[in-house]
TrEMBL record:
GO molecular function: metal ion binding; UDP-2,3-diacylglucosamine hydrolase activity
A Pfam cross-reference name: Metallophos
Organism: Streptomyces halstedii
Protein name: Metallophosphoesterase
Transmembrane regions listed in the UniProt entry: 138-158, 165-186
CDD domains: MPP_superfamily (cd00838)
GO biological process: lipid A biosynthetic process
Keywords: Hydrolase, Membrane, Metal-binding, Transmembrane, Transmembrane helix
Domain Calcineurin-like phosphoesterase: 251-418
Classification via PANTHER family: PHOSPHODIESTERASE YAEI (PTHR31302:SF31), TRANSMEMBRANE PROTEIN WITH METALLOPHOSPHOESTERASE DOMAIN-RELATED (PTHR31302)
GO cellular component: membrane
Amino acid sequence: MARPPFRAAAARLRPRRPRAPLATLGAAPRPWIRALGLLAVVVLGAWLGLLAVGSVRAPVGPMDTTMTLRPSVSGGTKINVSPLGALRLDSHHAPVRLDVDVDQLDPERSQALVKHPERLSGLQDEVTGDVAAGTRELAVRSCVAVVTGATALGLVVYRRPRRALAAGGLALALLAASGVSAYATWNPKSVLEPKFSGLLSSAPSVVGDARSIVTDFDVYQQELARLVTNVTKLYDATSTLPVYQPDPATIRVLHVSDIHLNPAAWHIVHSLVEQYEIDVIIDSGDTMDHGTAAENGFLDPARDLGAPYVWVRGNHDSQATQDYLKKLKNVHVLDEGSAVDVAGLRVAGTGDPQFTPDRVRPRGGEAAELRAGRELASALRAQQRAGTPVDIAVTHDPTAARETDGAVPLVLAGHVHHRVNELLPQGTRLKVEGSTGGGGLRAVQNEKPEKVRASVLYMDRSTRHLQAWDEITLGGLGLTTAEVSRHLPEENLVKSTPSPSATTPSP
């Protein structure tokens, strides 16, 4: 039906809305893009809020500290102890990390402790309360900082109060979820395995000896309290460092391996022997690169390292290498299951059955390693029957080492240039060390320098069982970084009980 004339005229006079250009069709942001944008605003705003006002200055005993929450991928707790470095604790897994900066020792509070030493008996309780109060204040301030930062940035970006409030609410929800995640994954025993980075010479003073670490801590707050209490001992009026006093109840064994003709390794070993007051050094082989007689002079420093040197042959060490070491004073060469009593321990070992310095010559392969391992296990059982049980067995290849399972409490190896720690099915603990020489010439052949690795093993002097160990890692060529990581056997973590405070008077 045709329109009436007056309607047609009105339609022609009505102004038409301009059509949107074809290029703008579909330009509205998709929902997931808007959501990602909001999430980015929330995370950035929350981070800026934490940076601005998310720190709490809290007195902890005689020390002034700053506690801060920081965004993190792995979580955990970091305690910065200037000028020594930092202690890292795997305390929780969440997208936030707790940073505790030990700023300074308060002169008045520290002098009060010096003048009134009886107050030391209550220092741990005081520190526990200080840590708890600081943590509560930090939680409240962090909530305010996160919500304020996200809301402010949301208002700047969106210019809409509703969107800004949504950003603040989402930030609070994310912080709450992080708190729940931290609570669910809280590890109160994390301080038993701290990781220290910074000045290697001060690491033992901060980490402490194995026996005190096993027995002196129970729950996290008390552990952190004791930790901070021990840190205070690093400071006096002139901020001097104390002398490291090793526990006389432990035998300290330095495990090195795969030096591969790196002369810098001797200096590192000598330094560790002095710093940790090592009782015996055990080298699980590959001291050489080609095993030629021309290389033998490289071995001379082994006799002057300050501790007995126990050695087994690696696949880069020749019989000529072994014969030369046998002539050196203070060196004990083990092969074919032979044993030696040294530093209160009985150690037995065997050399690698293969000599493959150029990786071209025919080799016996895994079968040769398995056979050598079985022969070593047979020698260990014979020692047991004879009433002279072996405390530590040593091979070069882990394949041979695994064959000693059940015949010895602890077996050491090398060869693979990375660390392995494994409790074998029949109860023997296998510890494989990385390269103490940083891979030798491989350090300049590889794209990245190989790190220098060694470990200090703490053995109980009465039971001669492994109590704990420190993994020492240096940053390859140049040695620009140093890290010490404390580890305990699982059985010690289960059986450890807190001991009375060192400051509590004996009855």
